[in-house]
Specification:
alpha/beta; disordered N terminus; six-stranded mixed beta sheet; 387 residues; seven-stranded mixed beta sheet
Length: 387
Amino acid sequence: MHRKRRAVPGIVEARSVSIALLAAAAVLAGCQRGSSSGPAVSTTGPSGCPAAQAKAQAAVARAEQADVPWNGPTSGPAAVSGKTIVYVAQTMTNPGVAGVAQGVREAAKVIGWNVRVIDGEGTPAGIQAALSEAVSLRPSGIVIGGFDPDSTSQQVARATAAGIPLIGWHAVDSPGPSMRPRLFTNVTTHVDDVTAISAQWVIARSRGNAGVVLFTDASIPFAKHKSELIRKRLAVCAGVRLLAYENIPIEDASSRTPREVSSLLSRYGSRWTYSVAINDLYFADAAPAFRAAGEEGSGPPFNIGAGDGDPSAFQRINSEQYQAATVPEPLSLQGWQILDEFNRAFSGRPASGYVAPVHVSTAATSKGATSWDPSGYREAYRKIWGR
């Protein structure tokens, strides 16, 4: 246990960072699965970044706006009938994956289709078996729910050969159609936008002075890419020090995160003022360690999740329990979008091209809500489908 800290953002010891960050980049590039590392931190030197801070504050103010009008599709093919969709989940213990599955189920009831969910249980063998089962069912379409299609290349090839369209959610880095792997489309926000606003939130809230721990899962290419972008975005501010880059596989998060957080608190003490994680669930697992160390739920460290904005994350944010913000995916909306994209595929139409806007949810902006659920999409899709 270390001394308790007052929850005052942006007040930390000044220290030299330019050389340390460059050195850390070389070290972090070589991190292996299940490892963690952190650069040495100086206690002297310049801090802050007025220009980057001003840009960050403007970006965060835009992203925190909650009343955003629907900017997705307003036209498309009417609903086709008699379709069956199989949603293959990376793991249903991942709240983002589970939230999208729920959105798919909800939309299926409206459009009149059947949905089956198969849980890959978070392991390569489990995911491969789940997708094999999905292909053998010969459904109308299959959702790649939160895993890398390249890890199931044989099953993807079988689905493609059978003429079964595949739609991904967080399956590849970018939204939209993909040729390699072959996906009719991939539904996700722009990872560049999510990583940028996550880092900008830290820079803006800390007023350009922060000691940051970054949590990732390097076993998932999408997650690793996201964390590398966050690291680069943080580095634009000289007053932001990356203390540690923690690689904890999601399936090990519940057992490993509390131990790693305890170690980090012992190692960095009051220098650790902010955290960014590629998924909110890390902070659910970190909370017991923070609590045991006597840290106040309202921070510091002030924690932001760069996805996915599940209900438990909102509950922690709203009650100020070891999470201050999230960059949520509109999970239900994306479930509806997946069904609409399948309807376009079945109708011989191209993908819609829609990408949900980036958003930041805090206790002030969520107003007690437990999800980021923009208005207008249900009405828009019902009108498109004729339902």
